Amino acid sequence: MIDDALIVQATAVLKAGGLVGLPTETVYGLAADASSAQAIAKIYAAKGRPSDHPVIVHLAHAEQIKDWAIDISEEAWTLARAFWPGPMTLILKRAPHVLDAVTGRQDTVGLRIPSHPVAHAVLAAFGGGVAAPSANKFGRVSPTTAQHVREEFGDAIDLVLDGGASEVGIESTIIDCSTAVLRVLRPGMVTESMIANALGQNGKPVAEQKAATPRVSGSLDAHYAPCTRLLLVTPETLAATLAAQQPGCVAVLSHARPAGFSGEWRQAATDARVYARELYAHLRELDGVGADMMLIEAPPQRAEWDGVNDRLRRAAYGSGET
Ligand code: TXA
Ligand code: MG
Q1: What is this structure's pTM?
Q2: Fewer CB within 10 Å, N side or C side of the chain?
Q3: Do 265 and 122 reside in the same domain of the chain?
Q4: Residues of the chain with pLDDT under 70
């Protein structure tokens, strides 16, 4: 059920240049009016994020992308029809009016039409574009519940809307449609094979982004990290790795509780979609149990796990192991 009074309140906060914790189907966003440089500055300040990192502009309807982008290719429209509203962001050539604060002074802009009913209601009522990075401090785990957003920001934001736990659980797939070769800049639940299927045989080839550039902050290696040291281990080495640790100091995320282990354990789902939905809540919970180390059993290396494996690799970065 959507609370109309809260939608009106959220719209008023956005119009006044304030910040709203906004539920989306991927993760919660920290939302501000994308046409106000002052409002966007508040996002950067609250997140502690470098200001050359661009933010995604969220819109209610796909046709609105014409107000924000130019030179929109046939492929981009095909992807828009196939996956919007939903967990996909398209990078397109920016329209001249789009603020540098939104684009990070690049000639492109990231656009997304979320499917979450609360996000849609706010965007439709607001009418304009809403800049919304994930509602976490820079480099930390993204929030998938309203409570996560409150824990992260406390009173520093004006309003947090509660739209329940995010369905998808990891951030949108980002596809760069601004150049001749389409590129997946950030994997997500819209997978490369889904993209290729949607484009059909006449579609442009899809390449994966190899270089880590600050253009996508998720592509910085240490992104999405919990505070506790995190070790990703294969199913075969889980038991031996666990046996080598001090008991009581380890928290584990794996398919089955390791034999003889009585410490903090969360059950990992066998389905990639369910795993993604639960991942950030698991990381936050296990981060909070006071363990010295989090041991995570690596999921399969299959295509439907690309988004999950990408986030786990980044979360484990810096722990000295892969
Ligand atoms: O699922 C999502 O995309 C969530 C929800 C709230 O919509 N948002 C999100 O925003 O993940 P954020 O800011 O945490 O991640 C967006 C990524 C950033 O890494 C940013 O660098 C990249 O998108 N990005 C935005 N505009 C871009 C552009 N013009 N070129 C390249 N990358 C861009
Ligand atoms: Mg983020």
Answers
A1: 0.93
A2: N
A3: no
A4: 201-225, 318-322
